[in-house]
Write a structure and sequence with these properties.
homodimer, Butyryl-CoA Dehydrogenase, subunit A, domain 2, 17 helices, 11 strands, globular
């Protein structure tokens, strides 16, 4: 069975030493996030993940969810009890507003905790994660009445949330959706339609399930401008907050899928279900985007989370598995063979994963901090800058962390040879579970198009320029420090590649948008490499300083070596991305469709 | 359900127009392989794959194999009947010697046929593929008596074969193996031990199963120099060829694994089973290598095969799935949305897969032709050169075609969005099935080490120099042709990168072998890119010539555009590989083991 140890120390190092959480004390909620509180929260979350959720991961995969003839769904053995513990620990609402029962702590802390939950049991963590996304959408767009009615129970976790977008014929292109809403005299709506791929759509973990559903109000315009968002509870909620009658919504079937078997992915049938409008009519997509942006970061977390747990197990295995001898001669002549970690190719693989993981964790924390500032700062300019950064980084975090996270689970599985292909060690489950993150909440190709087509040019490229300026200023500031050279020189080259690619789009994609489409995925990954490289440079700076403290020399040295590995072997890939981008759309658009 | 159309025309183009099968007429068996015969064989194999095996692929995945309490194993519904048809068609023995009932046709033809079988149903094709590997080992190493006793039935296919190497504690390092053989007075041996991960170890498709098993003869030296190979039939074979008593070998359990569920992967228990020595005592590894080299090419075929069928389904889906509009404006304004193939990012993905597939098919045919020459030529020098090429190319074919083949199934799955993650379309099965090919017959890291550690320097680098010379000569020969420039210029640059990397190993890996280990995987992929680039250059030359023939303009133009795509977007990756190789083992070997 796979094991897991939550990387609490690493998260604390990032929060305290790299990003200096204490400097954000002026933001609401941050004053409560003292180093002691943060450490206590993370250690507790780590323990819960390691001890309660990790042992349930294979159980969940093996058993999956079961739909009964009456439409009810049973989750795998142990999930119900674990969810009770999650609720008792208040984990869903640690960053939710105090007025709805949350703890009001920074959202950054929720991201850090969610990594642990997802590493130990992604299928389980999704029940909570979707609830957090639904809370975010209601907080931002719902009327006070709806908030008061639904949020406290959701923040507590006794009710969970879902997100109902996809229909059989439309996923990416929501303008095609057919679900209908008919306004009733009491102001509510009757919702009718079929939604597919609804994660946590029906289950036995909560007393009620609050579905957020997009549908077209009778008579609304076609396309995306006629979409409205509704809250549709599984069980109607009386005015006094008690549960009333079942609503007209049911689970039609559970999808048979590649992984995350412990999460019930449902076909949901809305059959004249009663729903209430969230936000304005025909502005549903707008509200949905709040939820999706939240969710996209959360999916990025999943990419890192699977990569991390896969790394940990691969590293343990590499130190235990005896097979062959080191190329330079036996390292353990007293053993029948050397552990495979003596091999450079094995270490290269492990370092490739780890050099991603540590920087990805930093990137998530850094992005989440922008999110906290965007939501909580009282300074309008600061809010805008943070919001810019969030918008720019969200598709990168989602696309790059899940593509790379998945690739890393495959590499970690490879360490096990044939033992990685069988279910026993749990490595193949990590691969199957990680795979979904590249798809849902907008397939990664869509993230790349969002980045290149929308985010780059937005507000005259303001967000992009700010990113370039920040990285550039960091390089300039630290350039006098000789010890920083091995990190700054490659980062500087990679930044130049990214700038050249951005410039190339400006010059070549206006008149010919296919040039943007042809280079979008390369650009997203290139951007990710530069962002991760910037994170490594900041980590290196902090690690070099901390290496002098008591007991920190070894872990900090490991960070410096890993940073160098990233700079030497991973970051230079930006050159190949640039070359591909500059190749343009020529050969790509030349063939007629029937030639494919 | 996924569909499949065997790429018969493409295989014929490669055999006839690119590699000119007719020029090999002097080799035994090639004279019989007239264009008519070759086309008939391929069309028939294609039909069988499309009509019989494709519909069984999801069935096999869903049902898997069942072990009964008596140790017998039932294959999925339909497999037994399909295997009867395979035997009736003589497909296992098309390249086997006529004296044992085969058709004696080029082994190249078997590789081409096996691609179709694996695309349509890899789990099924493995039963036949392992039999072919066992036939090859017996042909080369067994006594005449053993050959006469076992080969005719195996060539016919009424008996199948297996390969028993791995034990619970040893996979890569066979020197650690514990299975024992004790010589009996009649010259036979009693074999005792446990083997794991034995594909097709027990099933209901054949009257008998001929296991090839490695074990250590009592008193033999430790390590790889004390390993012998034995033939151990499931049912003992009487002198008259009839079946006798069951032997002491049984299936202990079937592994629960990620994919290829239709193939029974068994734990095999040998409990004083009677076996006969194949080849000399303590020279078993040598004999096993024949089988493994054969098998490694076969596994490379699987990489291409899954990539090809995944491509076909992704291309069909991209032309059907309506979602969004082209960036340059609606292409199908009369439809509710454009098919997703209008998007550059979708085409880029499809072309990336296809540019690999066509060149990989060429590389397999080219490598197999070397194999035919090595086995059949009467000219010793020609045989040696062909054998050199086979040795050099085998790890590249195995490692690169399976790594890339797997990555391609993931990309093809991505085209389907959420529909790719559920079982219905079969895309996630391609991913799970393709995954094993990176692991078995020597995990790809081992292939890379074999290439860099053994094959590069062998015989003073003779094979490598011959490869460089051939590619270099082709570039020089064709350089006067202006139309070939877009292919030759990038190929020339990539070849220079490969030569620089080879030189770097010569200068830096002798004294410090970890420098070789650290760059091995990059080198293997770089070599693969150059080999595929060479294939594309040869394809481009043939396609340009053929484009003038009747009706060939469109498919040949597609090849030329795809070749350009490969040259512009895929081949330049050699630069990144070179940079990583030249970074050396420094940061990789620096950390102590406990830091991982």
């Amino acid at each position: 069975m796979p094991s897991y140890k939550a990387p609490v120390d690493d998260a604390l190092f990032l929060l305290n030493d790299v990003f200096h959480l204490d400097r954000y004390g002026n933001l609401p909620g941050f004053a409560d996030a003292s180093p002691d509180v943060v450490e206590a929260v993370l250690r507790e979350a780590g323990k819960f993940s390691e001890q309660v959720l990790t042992p349930l991961n294979r159980v969940g995969d093996k058993e999956g969810c079961t739909r009964h003839p009456d439409g009810s769904v049973t989750t795998p053995t142990g999930f119900k009890d674990a969810f009770k513990q999650l609720v008792a620990g208040g984990w869903i609402g640690i960053s939710a507003p105090v007025e709805y029962g949350g703890q009001g702590l920074p959202a950054t802390l929720t991201e850090a905790v969610n990594e642990f939950l997802c590493s130990s049991n992604q299928a389980f963590a999704m029940y909570a994660g979707l609830t957090q996304g639904a809370i975010a959408a209601l907080l931002e767009h719902a009327s006070q009445e709806l908030k008061t009615r639904y949020l406290p129970k959701m923040v507590e976790g006794v009710w969970t949330g879902t997100m109902n977008l996809t229909e059989p014929h439309c996923g990416t292109d929501l303008g095609l959706l057919r679900s209908k809403a008919v306004k009733q005299s009491d102001g509510s709506y009757r919702i009718t339609g079929t939604k597919i791929f609804i994660s946590a759509g029906e289950h036995d973990l909560a007393e009620n399930i609050i579905h957020l559903v997009i549908a077209r109000i009778e008579g609304a315009p076609m396309g995306t401008k006629g979409i409205s968002l509704f809250v549709v509870p599984k069980i109607l909620v009386n005015d006094d907050g008690s549960l009333g009658k079942p609503n007209g919504v049911s689970c039609g079937s559970i999808e048979e899928k590649m992984g995350i078997h412990g999460n019930s992915t449902c076909v949901m049938n809305y059959d004249g279900a009663t729903g209430w409008l969230v936000g304005e009519e025909n502005r549903g997509l707008n509200a949905m985007f709040t939820m999706m942006n939240e969710a996209r970061l959360g999916v990025g977390v999943q990419g890192l989370a699977q990569s991390e747990v896969a790394y940990q197990n691969a590293a343990l295995y590499a130190k235990e598995r005896l097979q062959g001898r080191a190329l330079s001669g036996a390292k353990y002549p007293d053993k029948p063979a050397d552990p495979i970690i003596v091999h450079a190719d094995v270490r290269r693989t492990l370092l490739t994963i780890r050099a991603f993981n540590e920087a990805a964790r930093a990137l998530l924390i850094w992005t989440s901090l922008h999110g906290d500032v965007a939501r909580r700062s009282e300074d309008g300019k600061e809010r805008q800058a943070a919001d810019d950064a969030m918008g720019l980084l969200t598709p990168v975090v989602k696309g790059v962390l899940t593509d790379t996270g998945f690739a890393n689970t495959v590499m970690a599985q490879q360490m096990f040879g044939g033992h990685g292909y069988i279910a026993e060690h749990g490595m193949e489950q990590f691969v199957r579970d990680a795979r979904i993150a590249m798809i849902y909440e907008g397939a990664n190709g869509i993230q790349a198009l969002d980045l290149v087509g929308r985010k780059l040019g937005k507000d005259g490229g303001r967000a992009l320029m700010a990113f370039f300026n920040e990285v550039g200023a960091f390089i300039k500031d630290k350039s006098a420090d000789e010890a920083m050279k091995p990190y700054l020189t490659p980062l500087s080259a990679a930044l130049a590649h990214l700038q050249a690619a951005s410039m190339w789009f400006m010059q070549n994609a206006m008149a010919k948008p296919d040039n943007a489409g042809a280079g979008a995925t390369d650009y997203m990954h290139m951007f990710g490499l530069v962002a991760l490289g910037y994170m490594w440079a900041r980590i290196a700076e902090a690690a070099a300083a901390k290496a002098k403290s008591n007991g920190a020399a070894a872990p900090m040295k490991a960070k410096l070596v890993t940073a160098r590995f990233f700079m030497e072997r991973m970051l230079p890939e930006t050159a190949a991305h640039l070359a591909r981008i500059q190749a343009g759309a020529g050969s790509i658009m030349e063939l007629p469709e029937e030639a494919f």
